[in-house]
Amino acid sequence: MSRIKPLNFSKLTPDIQNILFAVETNMGFMPNDALVMAHKPDVMSAFGALVQAVYNNQSEISSVLKRLIGLVTSQAAGCRYCQAHTAHAALNHDINDAKLEALWEYETSPLYSDAERAALRLAQAAGMSPAYVSEDIFTELNSHFSNSQIVEIVATISLLGFLNKWNSVFETEIESLPKAVLNKYFPH
């Protein structure tokens, strides 16, 4: 059970209900972390704007790679809630099962390109601690991505860093849909 009880949707202001209705439509379920965040509507509104900026339709980074970046970041940070959500989102953005199952072998799996490996290496290092991001990681990243793309990758990692801390501190209860995906693909 979450350390802070998620608010009941019916108790939210119309503005926050509209934000969360869009979130639910996009995700396929109502996320508990958003219902906890709704205790502070200004934080919820600002966070919603950040999510839209990071996951917008004019992205230079594929939606699948962004979800994999989020998943690796969350795994490195130890946040099961965010691992569940990002795995669920990856499946909703048409990742194939084999690629998702091979995620933890991204360094050697032929299912991952050199560019994907570079982005996931950054996600793994930054997810543990930004201090682990070496010049070698950035040199490799620069050989595959433009500055604008790198900013987008780091924005994705940073967004998940916030969510990893938020959900780990609150011990947010994982909803049934993402929990089923987590248990299927990453049961440990």
Automatic annotation (TrEMBL):
Domain Carboxymuconolactone decarboxylase-like intervals: 41-124
Transmembrane segments: none
Family annotation (Gene3D superfamilies): AhpD-like
Molecular function as annotated in GO: peroxiredoxin activity
SUPFAM superfamilies: AhpD-like (SSF69118)
One Pfam family here: CMD
Cross-referenced PANTHER family: CARBOXYMUCONOLACTONE DECARBOXYLASE-LIKE DOMAIN-CONTAINING PROTEIN, SI:CH211-175M2.5
Protein name per the record: Carboxymuconolactone decarboxylase
